[in-house]
Amino acid sequence: MPLSKEVRKYTYADYLTYPDDERWEIIDGVPHMQSAASWQHQSISRELLRQFSNYLLGKPCEVFASPFDVCLSDAETDDEDVTNVYQPDLSVVCNKSQLKGTGYFGIPNLVIEILSPSTAKTDRLLKFNMYEKFGVKEYWIVEPDVKLVSVFILQDHNRYGRPELYTETGDVKVSIFPDLVINLNVVFDF
User: Fold this and answer.
1) Mean confidence (pLDDT) of the chain
2) Structure confidence by residue, pLDDT tens digits, 147-172
3) CB 132, CB 163: distance < 8 Å
4) Taking Cα atoms as reference points, which of 105, 78, 79, 77 lies closest to residue 93?
5) 12-187 belongs to which homologous superfamily?
6) What are the backbone angles phi and psi of residue 71, rounded to the nearest 5°?
7) How are beta strands 85-86 and 103-105 bridged, if at all?
8) What is the tally of helices (H) and strands (E) in the chain?
């Protein structure tokens, strides 16, 4: 009878040993290599970053664009033992004391993932479930090919409700910042 193979969970400590010229994420202990983004993806990311950055100037929260490590963890997990290391396209964080090294250790307030063919399944399923589990208050999934944004808001029972859907002609009112409105016409102007 063959011996059962041990299933290894990779951690942030392993992640730090990966080559600097490669982009990796670790999702629930499993490494995933990232591919280069399309120019449309980069255009959307740049414009969202600009609008969030302009709004957050002089405020206690900050927005970060990939490559920026988000190490989803609770207070009991040592940094090197974190098994969820993501590089969301955009992350908004409001607790600056959790900024360390290459990113953020904790739960971002808002995360935006811009889909590409190679990441769509991961962003819609694996990351969605982890962001919900860890309590990310607002999660956006941006679809460049159809110019659509799905916004998920964490509800009272710690689950994401039905998404609010926005097209390229709409404006998104950001739930965690009630006076911030993102103009999608500019975001999808490519």
Assistant:
1) 92
2) 999 999 999 889 999 999 999 999 99
3) no
4) 105
5) tt1808, chain A (3.90.1570.10)
6) -100, 95
7) unpaired
8) 5, 14
The residue ranking higher by pLDDT, 38 or 74, is: 38
> What are the tokens at 9?
């969970």
**What pLDDT is stored for residue 1 in this prediction?**
42
Q: Is 16 left (phi over 0), alpha (psi -120 to 50) or beta?
A: alpha
Burial 57-89 (b: 16+ CB within 10 A, else e): eeeebbbbbbebbbbbbeeebeeeebbbbbbbb
Structure tokens at 61: 């929260």
Give whichever of 13-27, 41-55, 114-128 has the largest mean pLDDT: 41-55
HSE toward the beta carbon, residue 101, CA cutoff 13 A: 11
